[in-house]
From TrEMBL:
This is Membrane protein. The keyword Amino-acid biosynthesis does not apply. InterPro entries: DUF4142 (IPR025419), Ferritin-like (IPR012347). Residues 1-29 form the signal peptide. The keyword Lyase does not apply. Residues 55-187 form the DUF4142 domain. Keywords: Signal. Gene3D superfamilies: 1.20.1260.10. It comes from Caballeronia ptereochthonis.
Length: 194
């Protein structure tokens, strides 16, 4: 307890004592809040440590695949010449943005806060293309090739991932990604025929 000068009037000393007594619960509450925050932080750190290498790799690869799909599809809206390619790209932006949000929530629960970047090699190979040349490359590399890899990635996580929430998310997303792959194959077939 702090020392006070002895020459203070008794009424002032009583007022100081009452004030200190009244503030004590607040100081204790702040100490408890700090302890709770520390426990939450260590729980988050423990969750991050619990995530297996397989699950961490899935989050990284799925995040990069989604970011690549979104970035390439945004390019398609301005670089593609075919209406069907643009419609496909618009659908991919909507669906993969939603999927990315869901994966970001799961990643943040495990202390992973930086969203993966798009594959710069794929995006770089598309940036300078226009019209039919862009359409062909986008369909081949992103629509068909990207979704083929994504189907395998999500299937693997849904079957052999260790984190139950990630396995469930992969299982839930797999039919959507498989449908995208089928749409991409149909789009590729219709463009090859014309």
């Amino acid at each position: 307890m702090p020392r006070f000068p002895l020459n203070l009037p008794r009424s002032r000393m009583c007022a100081i004592a009452v004030l200190l007594t009244a503030c004590a619960p607040f100081a204790q509450a702040q100490t408890e809040d700090a302890a709770s925050a520390g426990a939450a932080q260590s729980t988050q750190s423990a969750q991050s440590q619990k995530l297996s290498t397989i699950d961490q790799q899935f989050l990284q690869d799925a995040g990069q695949a989604g970011a690549t799909e979104i970035a390439a599809s945004k390019l398609a809206l301005t670089h593609a010449s075919d209406r069907q390619v643009k419609e496909f790209a618009q659908r991919m932006i909507v669906d993969h943005t939603k999927l990315a949000r869901n994966l970001d929530v799961l990643a943040k629960r495990h202390g992973i806060t930086a969203p993966p970047a798009a594959d710069t090699a794929v995006i770089g190979s598309l940036q300078n293309l226009q019209g039919a040349e862009f359409d062909k490359a986008y369909i081949e590399k992103v629509a068909v090739g990207g979704h083929r890899k994504a189907v395998e990635l999500f299937r693997k996580e849904s079957e052999s991932g260790n984190d139950t929430a990630l396995k469930a998310a992969a299982s839930k997303a797999l039919p959507v990604i498989s449908h995208h792959y089928e749409m991409a194959r149909q789009l590729a077939g219709s463009k090859a025929a014309s």
